[in-house]
Model the fold of this input.
Amino acid sequence: MTNAPKPGHNITQHIVDVLGRRIVAGEMAPGKTFLFEQDLIDEFGASRNAVREAVKTLAGKNLVVSARKKGTSVRPPEDWNLLDPQMIDWMIADKSTNKGLIKALSELRQIIEPEAAALAAQRATSTQILRLFECYEQMAGNTRNMEKSVHWDAEFHSVLLEASGNPLLRSLAKAVEKLLRSNFALFTGANQGYIRNIPDHLWIAEAIRDRDPELARQRARDLLTKNERDIEELQRTLDEVALPET
Amino acid sequence: MTNAPKPGHNITQHIVDVLGRRIVAGEMAPGKTFLFEQDLIDEFGASRNAVREAVKTLAGKNLVVSARKKGTSVRPPEDWNLLDPQMIDWMIADKSTNKGLIKALSELRQIIEPEAAALAAQRATSTQILRLFECYEQMAGNTRNMEKSVHWDAEFHSVLLEASGNPLLRSLAKAVEKLLRSNFALFTGANQGYIRNIPDHLWIAEAIRDRDPELARQRARDLLTKNERDIEELQRTLDEVALPET
DNA sequence: AGGCATTTGTGCGTATGTATT
DNA sequence: GAATACATACGCACAAATGCC
Done:
């Protein structure tokens, strides 16, 4: 019932997916509820090896720990790696964490991207600068195909963070990108806001090309501020519509 | 030779550890070198299950992917989860990534912590504020026991990020904390700088207590700027000393 | 303290599907 | 199309650690 065994393929991944969803949805209190191999074997109808490998995958993400005789328990949320792409998928899928995540990410981006833009103005390679302009062109040229346009939007911000030359920021880029792409429906909903903000990307790219950190920072800050306002406004309208739940 | 089988315990973890170290050390080119189960079985003298579970753990960290017929390959570094505590251990242990990581983290902290302080000034609970002051007291009171003092230093910054109320920032806190603790030797080396900067922590806590975001931001920025200068200076002196290798 | 049951950790054999050659 | 190589999966058995009585 809880799982459609997904006929033949990748039982292990399926177990990882189902358990991951449950954990981020808060269905299992950290430290309290214990999962036993035998229970999982029974529930998923899988072999012990498959179950163990699934648990190891989750353990690799710091989601769970296993101990002899005590079974496997969920680790406290502050140990979770929130920036893992699969984790983001699970959080997006879960209604209770969805909104908070988008807000948190928006806040994080407002902190990070202006500074990344300033660093990029100092460090970006000519190739990276060209890619920024290409992303802008693709964004601006595909406003009739929102999915494609949002794809290039995400790519723009990804390149921007990469151009900062800081590996930790690049690491964040993957998460930002993932979230933007996954939520492109959210942004296409704010259609007029999205299109209005496209030129901002060009201005940022120009400031980086001209090696002007202050200007790049300010323009990135402007874009993200407008972006946050759009998201907040859209979420308010969505909340009004979203009354029904099963 | 490459591995001391670590007598009884956790062959799987041992395999994870050895492979993780190799990967972050860049010994295996992403996408090119392939690891085959049989090779790993031979090298570690472990069973297929142990090897498979170790690989799954690494896959959970997005370090590797497995494909039929092609074996397991290393993913490109931009896919790695740099904030994973174990990853940080591996990177600290590796000389080639060590310095770059500390520099990148220092840069990231300069971006994030001032804003986190500003947010904390708006959102911190009274309990969190008390903990900030407690951390300062412990820092200032244990200058004769550097390890302890640095422990509370790390705790201070951890609480600060947590008090920002943003789960993504809290996620970063774990990595920052890990790095500070692991590198406490580095900071105790910069003894005079470390002690000189202790009062800054009190001033930050006071600004947060007084709910003054601008002041908290500015004071955090001051601390981190001084901190970076100390680290840079120390690394220069360390470089001069660090000629010998085995 | 000692012994027993439970649960994870480990090893081995084997079958099957799938992608490459 | 056949052979090959590898990942995926199952099942069983024993070892080791832990909790309970």
Summary: Chain B touches chain A at residues 12, 49, 52-54, 56-62, 77-85, 100-101, 104-105, 107-108, 111-112, 115, 119, 162, 166-171, 173-174 (CB under 8 Å).
